[in-house]
Design a protein that fits this description.
Keywords: GTPase activation, Leucine-rich repeat, Repeat. InterPro entries: Leu-rich_rpt, LRR_dom_sf, RanGap. It comes from Mizuhopecten yessoensis. The protein is of the alpha/beta class. Among the domains are: 220 residues, Leucine-rich repeat, LRR (right-handed beta-alpha superhelix) (Alpha-Beta Horseshoe), CATH 3.80.10; 120 residues, Alpha-Beta Plaits; 51 residues. The chain is 33% helix and 11% strand. The strands form 8 sheets. The protein has a 21-stranded parallel sheet, with no helix packed on it. The longest helix is centred in the C-terminal third of the chain and has 45 residues. The radius of gyration is 31 Å and the shape is globular. The N terminus is likely disordered.
């Protein structure tokens, strides 16, 4: 791989103009945190689509999450602290690699670590949206190293400008000599003073001092927020709905500075995608993930990228493509020499075909730096590893969730890469890849003398013994640059280990850089932790975040060894975040935490760990304490005095985030919390979800906050309780009480018992001058009918400033200018059980999420993919032009294993085509024909459903040839009306607007007609055979029925 280069990550360049045998397995579900996804990664990410947000402290090295609220599925609360700096590991991606371009911002995946104990609690607050004050905190110091992006020349000019002189070369030389002499004199004086100091144990003290100097600095580094123009564009694009006038969407916005385009759903039908794309001339980052576009659309984008020179980052994950698409991916990587980031995760690309197509392309590609290929169903990587061995540009690789058939061969290839002097590989994720003990040892051996790696993920693999796990951890802790190591949910059979097992892995001449270590559910014990401490004795690990959750054999005594690892005789422990959740043995845990071993601890997660001495925890966050975040979810503290003890001395302390979800708390139980809030407890985030709070509990909580003239509470999660409309009325007072200034910007009341009154009340307090920006209302126990939902949407539209016009009892589309919505606004009203009604359909957008998406799929269509492809080709037209060979690759006509109809090659037929996508697996041709002919009233010529080239099962896409253009219009109107559903599942109908530059000749047209006639004959024969089968089965059934009536002793073929 290419050289590591500088460890500072530059901003995306904004100066460019846009212009063998195949096999297949079903990809695994991703339930492991990949190294580059959440462990230590703090680069701002695109808005996730799934409702699964990272919780406070779940992201390794991340203290302030991004802004979307999501349902709680993880082992920590989702209540991010306010006004905290984002912690970034000292090792950031390099600015350049050999032969490569600047690396674009790295995306974070939305997948989370699966709860090893099966937590089903709901709720979990929201990712907070940064206020103006928070953005000021996150703004980089212009004099700091982190916020400085100046070139050496610019830095030199800045230094010279500070002197206020325009020095000549001679004057500069004299000045340098004078400063050098002064420095020498100063150094000499200091040395003389040091020699006169008598110090016992001089050698040991000198060694400790040297280690202290060499140890990497552990300090929170800040990342600047997205540029204002980019944020404004993202907010505007995500607010597009049927009510908004297309020409007002980007009004008063500066799109010349927009470099990122996120399209995780299609634009409303009254917008034209081509018009939007023509205004974006500097796009470098394109995200089309989570659209389920289908193989043909996926291939189109890949082929359009072949000669593109402006896009640096492309995300095509989760798009339901197939094995044959690997050929287009390989061609893109072979021809494109500017793409630096590619994510194709969660697409079924076959057992070995992806390897055969992409491997050779990587040998010659010099631009790709990040390749994310999780859960592709690939097993045979032999050809791919050959390409990786010769590649010199890749720095980040993620192959998680792929079951390797030859794991030793894969890890041997990576080990050879890691042993190279010019290795530039920094991040590697091989989680859940069925690596065994032998293959892991091969990979560890490659790491032994490597100097480039910073992140390693080996989650979910078969380590076999704690001996192997110990060697991996010690190797990482003795590595000069590895900052993140994740080995969660590994398979261990032998739980014995000693220091002798890993003694050879220690590199005494290397200062550790390990800062994030995750060992959740890995069957480790106290001996394992003590062995690490013994092997690394005498050095201080810069470990600031450790996860020991779900290890039944661990005892709190292990924390003494953790303290030893993270401290020295002359300096205290640097540990800041400790996750000790889902643990059986917790006796003495609080004693270990409060005895002064961890003076820097600010995050503690003891979720479902059954603490017996929980009353001692206040020592961590009282006036002189450091703890800011406390996660107590699942603790048995109901009907006890624990809450009173916990919060008695909290006023004036350091605690800002408290999570007590799933604790069965009632209004009586949270009375001490309310009292503490009245006395001045400055919580920024509070999670009380999944409890037994009724209206009284919520009302008491609100009144406690209102007793303060102003309060910093910014995120509140009361989801999954039994609150009714009365509780919602109380919550609204936080924003309507004139004597109180609220800072609450995120509110989660999902999964309660709200009705029309409660929903209307809460949506009425969002918008305008209200600080509320994220409001979750979904999954209410009480059913809400369409009439009530219409009232809710009317109130919401009025609160947010939408103009609604009616004509003939129908809502007029494109009747409203884009209102000035709060930055980062999200109102989630799906699912609520009732139809969204006409107004809900017109308001539906990524900002206002309704149930309309269940009726009409919002995903990008095949037609959208063609417009995007034309944009990537730089044609300036909304119709993409393909060569005949490219069109055959897109449709699959070049493969003998596909059932692609030949009339796709005929120009006159393409004008009458519609593309069907997201069809259920049990769809039949007869069902689609009946739907289009009888319900959509189309004249139909033929329907062809595509089959997977390997399994030969319906792959969810198809083509329909209609009789005339009017039928095409009817089919599209049928889809836009939200009526395109089969077996209760919505599917997508899209026109086919393409141009093939070498149009089919007469011979091709004749062949197409011949093939069509042959298919019709076969279909008629299949229909006749099917009818005969039904008739024969019916006759036999009646005969058995008649026999049973004539012979009462006969029952189900037996004589009684």
């Amino acid at each position: 791989m290419g050289s590591g280069g500088s460890k500072k990550k530059p901003p995306v360049n904004t100066n460019q103009s846009a212009g063998g045998d195949k096999g297949q397995t079903t990809p695994k579900a991703d339930n492991s945190n990949t190294t580059g996804d959440s462990k230590g990664q703090t680069t701002p990410t695109s808005q996730p689509k799934a409702d699964n947000s990272n919780t406070t402290g779940d992201s390794k090295g991340q203290t302030t999450p991004t802004s979307q609220p999501k349902a709680d599925n993880s082992d920590a609360t989702k209540l991010p602290p306010i006004k905290q700096e984002v912690s970034v590991p000292p090792s950031s991606p390099p600015a350049h690699t050999t032969g490569g371009r600047p690396l674009p911002p790295i995306k974070q995946d939305k997948a989370e670590s699966q709860d090893p104990k099966g937590d089903n609690s709901q709720g979990g607050g929201e990712k907070s949206e940064r206020s103006k004050e928070e953005q000021a905190v996150l703004k980089p110091d212009p004099d700091s190293k982190t916020g400085e992006d100046s070139s050496p020349v610019e830095k030199s000019e800045k230094v010279e400008s500070k002197t206020g002189e325009d020095n000549s070369p001679a004057e500069k030389s004299e000045k340098v000599e004078r400063e050098t002499e002064e420095k020498k004199g100063s150094d000499s004086k200091e040395r003389n003073q040091q020699e006169n100091i008598e110090n016992k144990g001089e050698t040991e003290a000198s060694t400790n001092k040297q280690d202290s100097v060499k140890m990497p600095e552990i300090e929170d580094r800040v990342i600047p927020p997205e540029p204002e123009d980019q944020r404004n564009f993202d907010d505007a694009l995500s607010s597009a709905c049927l009510l908004i006038k297309p020409d007002s969407l980007l009004k008063n916005l500066n799109v010349q500075n927009v470099t990122k385009l996120l399209l995780q759903r299609s634009l409303p039908s009254n917008f034209k995608l081509h018009d939007l794309l023509t205004k974006l001339t500097h796009v470098q980052e394109l995200d089309l993930s989570y659209n389920n576009m289908g193989p043909q659309a996926f291939r189109s984008v890949c082929l359009a990228m072949c000669n593109n020179t402006t896009i640096l980052s492309l995300n095509l994950s989760d798009n339901k493509t197939d094995t044959d698409t690997s050929e287009c991916i390989g061609q893109m990587l072979r021809m494109n020499q500017t793409l630096a980031y590619l994510d194709i995760s969660n697409n079924n690309l076959g057992i070995d075909y992806f390897s055969k197509c992409v491997g050779p392309a990587l040998k010659t590609n010099t631009s790709i730096q990040t390749l994310r290929a999780k859960s592709l169903g690939m097993r045979d990587l032999r050809v791919l590893m050959e390409g990786l061995t010769e590649n010199t540009s890749l720095t980040e690789i993620d192959f998680s969730m792929n079951s390797f058939s030859h794991p030793a061969g894969v890890t041997e290839g990576f080990a050879n890469i890691l042993k190279r002097d010019d290795c530039g590989l920094r991040s590697m994720a091989l989680g859940n890849c069925e690596l065994n003990e032998a293959s892991i040892e091969i990979l560890r051996d490659g790491l032994q003398n490597n100097t480039s790696m910073t992140e390693l993920n080996l989650n979910g693999n078969a380590f076999g013994s704690l001996k192997t796990l110990l060697k991996v951890v010690v190797t990482a802790a003795s590595h000069p640059s590895i900052t993140n190591l994740s080995v969660d949910n590994v398979q261990i059979q032998d739980t014995t280990c000693t220091t002798d097992d890993a003694a050879s892995c220690v590199r005494p001449d290397v200062i550790s850089n390990l800062q994030f270590l995750s060992l959740s559910s890995s069957k480790i014990n106290d001996t394992f932790i003590s062995s690490i401490a013994t092997l690394l004795k005498g050095r201080q690990l810069p470990l600031i975040d450790i996860d020991l959750s779900a290890n039944d054999e661990l005892t709190p005594g292990c924390l003494k060894f953790v303290a030893d690892m993270t401290s020295t005789d002359g300096s205290p422990s640097v540990l800041r975040k400790l996750k000790y959740s889902l643990m059986k043995n917790t006796n003495g845990l609080t004693d270990q935490l409060t005895n002064g071993q961890f003076p820097s601890l600010h995050y503690l997660n003891v979720r479902k760990s059954k603490l017996t001495d929980i009353h001692l925890l206040p020592d961590l966050y009282k006036v002189q304490g450091s703890l800011t975040t406390l996660i107590l979810d699942g603790q048995k503290i109901a009907n006890t005095d624990v809450m009173e003890t916990l919060l008695a001395s909290s006023t004036g302390g350091s605690l800002t985030t408290l999570s007590v979800g799933a604790c069965s708390l009632s209004a009586t139980d949270i009375a001490p919390l309310c009292q503490a809030l009245r006395k001045g407890l400055k919580l920024h985030m509070l999670k009380v979800s999944s409890n037994r709070l009724e209206d009284k509990g919520v009302t008491d909580l609100v009144e406690a906050v209102l007793s303060n003239k102003t309060h910093p509470l910014a995120v509140l999660d009361v989801s999954s309780n039994t609150m009714t409309d009365q509780g919602a009325l109380s919550l609204a007072k936080l924003f309507t009480t004139k004597s109180h200034t609220s800072q609450l910007h995120s509110l989660n009341v999902s999964s309660n018992d709200l009705g029309k009154v409660g929903l209307v009340t809460l949506v009425s307090v969002i918008g305008g001058k209200s600080p509320l920006r994220t409001l979750y209302l979904q999954n209410q126990t009480r059913g809400v009918d369409e009439g009530d939902m219409d009232e809710v949407f009317k109130t919401l539209a009025k609160s947010l400033g939408f103009k609604v016009e009616m004509k003939d009892e129908e809502i007029v589309q494109s009747c409203s200018d884009r209102p000035n919505l709060p930055e980062g606004l999200v109102v989630k009203l799906s699912p609520l059980g009732g139809s969204p009604g006409k107004l809900g359909c017109n308001l539906d957008s990524p900002r206002i999420q309704t149930d309309y998406a269940k009726e009409k799929l919002p995903n990008l269509s095949f037609a959208d993919s063609q417009v995007i492809s034309a944009f990537l080709k730089g044609t300036g037209s909304d119709v993409c032009v393909w060569s005949g060979e490219e069109w055959k690759m897109i449709t699959g006509s070049n493969k003998p294993t596909t059932d692609t109809p030949s009339w796709l090659q005929v120009a006159s037929s393409r004008d009458l085509l519609v593309y069907l996508c997201n069809l259920p697996g049990n769809t039949t041709r007869q069902k689609v024909e009946a739907l289009l002919e009888m319900e959509a009233d189309c004249t139909l010529e033929e329907v062809c459903l595509m089959k997977d080239p390997v399994t030969r099962s319906i792959n969810g896409v198809g083509w329909a040839l209609l009789g005339d253009k009017e039928s095409v219009t009817k089919a599209l109107d049928f889809f836009h009306a939200g009526m395109a559903t089969i077996f209760g599942q919505a599917f997508l109908i899209s026109p086919v607007k393409v141009k093939v530059d070498d149009e089919a000749n007469t011979e091709s047209q004749a062949k197409a007609r011949e093939d069509q006639e042959e298919r019709l004959k076969q279909q008629r024969q299949d229909d006749r055979d099917h009818r005969r089968l039904i008739q024969r089965t019916t006759d036999e059934t009646w005969k058995r029925h008649a026999y049973r009536l004539a012979h009462p002793a006969y029952a189900d073929g037996r004589i009684w």
